Amino acid sequence: MNTLRKSGAVFIAILFTLSAVAALFLFNFDRTAFTAETYQQAFAREDLYNKLPVVMAQTMTSGAADQSQFPVVMQGMSTSAWEGFFRALLPPDSLKAMGDDMLNSTFAYLNQQTDSVQLNLIPLKTGMTNDNAVQAVSSLLGTLPDCTLVQIGQMTLDLLGGGQIEFCNPPADMLPLLTPVIQGQLQLTAALIPDQVTLVTAPAQNDPRQRLQFTRVLMRVSPMAPLILLLVLTLLAVRSLKDWLGWWGIPLLVTGAITLGMSIIGAPVFSAILQRVLASRMPDFLPSLLLDYTRELATAMVRALLRPVLWQGLALGLLGLFMAGAGYFTRPSRT
Fold first, then answer.
1. 9-34 pLDDT, tens digit each
2. For residue 70, which phi and psi values (nearest 5 degrees)?
3. Considering 201, 234, 260, which residue would you say is the last residue of a domain?
4. Which of 116, 176, 215, 226 lies most in the core, judged by the most C-beta atoms within 10 Å?
5. What is the tally of structural domains in the chain?
């Protein structure tokens, strides 16, 4: 009977160790992977804010905005032309503000606080009314074919008559005449551009976020499994202080050692796994900008995850070492 009890206790101790390691990773993943701050750090570290004009340009050419109402110079602009235009208008601090707003919107969506992910375009509209906007359009005109003599003559007549100007790349001495027209059309364009565009919208039925929330609940309650197993181990094997120190200390020591080792050497493996998950399972959740940078996002997740897991594993290992050592030097109680 005593042998059977000890064999069962060893089995429970092994289960405790495995479940405790898994719970540490799952619980911390839920805490770190679904907060905007984790990815704001990744954006800053990987210079992803600087890549925001790319997704904005793709949005403007994908049908999200009605370009038919834009001034002629901006109708049918290519993605690269829009990107250059946005970069000329938006300084780094504006790009960071827009990126942070998008991340906050993304995780409000994932946490079911909202039903869509929005990209805020107000900093862009503000930029279109300042002095840099005229220079941006001048650079944009430089991408057009050079004006012919006929086009220059027609442009002059349109300027004098107040007609709609068909833009081309004008001579440098003509730019001062065009500046008031450019400013007026920029103000018109700023009024036509929406304050925000929707990047992701929740489906009316079969919302995948419901499954995600259920998974997150399991992550949050995952520490309950090792705690229950630890209680069962106590009832099954502990009969004295020495038993308690040994049967708790050794599993805690092993759990801490495994967790610490996985935290130190497991980053490349975890990053590769998360990249696959993001690429294959997350298109229904995240805007295209984030999906384009799964490597950077996976790295950010792993860094945010492993930091607390490493310290928790170290703490458990030291606690287990102390308990196991104290149990070794504790005299068995006399019966």
1. 899 999 999 999 999 999 998 888 88
2. -75, 160
3. 201
4. 226
5. 2
